[in-house]
C-alpha cells in the first residue's frame, strides 16, 4: 500500500509541475539525439543513458537514514562522484559516463547534473523506435557524495531471487506492477559485464535491441537463440506473484506496456526526493523529442525500409 501511495503522490507532483521549461533543454535534447539515434534504432549510448539514469536514482532505499538531497536517489551522484562509477555494479557504464561528463561540462552553467542524467534517459527512450515519452521534470538538487552501495538489483546469483528483488524495490517505493514495467527497458539492453555468467559481451536481452517493443517479454519466456536473459528477469517473469502476472500481461501488448512504463519511469526519476522539493520542479516533457520511428526509416537504406 505504501508503494502505491508513494507512486501516486510522486506522479501527481510530476503532473502538477509548473513554470516554463528553460529553452536550454531543447538544445540539450537535440544534441543528445545526434548520438542516441542510429540507422538500426537506438545506439549503445542511448542504452547507456537508460541504464545510467536507473543506477543513479535506484541507489535509494527508504531504510537508509535520510541525507540531503535524496538519500542516494536521483541526485546526480553517479555523474559527480569519482567513486560511485568505479563500483562493480556500474561496470560497462564508463564509456557513457565519459560521454555525459562532456555534455555536462558543456551545459553545466545552465543545467544540473541530476536533471541531465534523467533528461538524457527520456531522450534515449524516445530514440528507440516505439519508445514512449516519459513525464520529465527538472529542478533536482545535486550531490557529489557517493550513493549507498549494494542497493541496485543483481542480475545473477542469490540477489536475483524473485522475493529478494520484490523486497528491494518495495524498499524504494516501487510496486510490483511498476517493477514489471520498468524491467521491460531490457528490450533495448545489451549485456556488457556478465561474461562470468555465460552472457557474451553485447549479448542482447531481446531479439530487437534497437527497438522499444515487447519482444523482451515473450523472449524471456521462450529463450530464442541469440537472446541472453538475466536470471533476475526470468525469476521476475514467474506468474506466481503480482510482478510475474503483470510481466506476462505485457506479452504482445505494446500499448499496455508503454502506458505502464512511462509513469513508472517518471516515479523512478524522482526517488528519494521530498514532496516539498518536487513541488518546485518544472515540467520539461515538451523538450523531449517525439519518437524516432519516422526518423529511423528515413535514415535507413532504401532496401531496409521495405523489409
TrEMBL record:
Location of the active site: 55
Enzyme class: oxidoreductase
GO biological process entries: cellular response to oxidative stress; hydrogen peroxide catabolic process; response to reactive oxygen species
Occurrences of domain Plant heme peroxidase family profile (ranges): 45-307
Disulfide bonds: 42-128
Keywords of this entry: Calcium, Disulfide bond, Glycoprotein, Heme, Iron, Metal-binding, Oxidoreductase, Peroxidase, Signal
E.C. designation(s): 1.11.1.-
Cofactor binding note: Binds 2 calcium ions per subunit. Binds 1 heme b (iron(II)-protoporphyrin IX) group per subunit.
Chain residues that bind Ca(2+) 1: 56, 73, 75, 77
Gene Ontology terms, MF aspect: heme binding; metal ion binding; peroxidase activity
Residues involved in Ca(2+) 2 binding: 187, 206, 208, 213
Keyword tRNA processing attached: no
Record site feature (Transition state stabilizer), residues: 51
UniProt: heme b binding residues: 186
One Pfam family of this chain: peroxidase
Signal sequence bounds: 1-17
Cofactor (UniProt): Ca(2+); heme b
PANTHER family in the cross-refs: CATALASE-PEROXIDASE, THYLAKOID LUMENAL 29 KDA PROTEIN, CHLOROPLASTIC-RELATED
Family: Belongs to the peroxidase family. Ligninase subfamily.
Protein's name according to its UniProt entry: Peroxidase
Native source species: Aureobasidium pullulans (Black yeast)
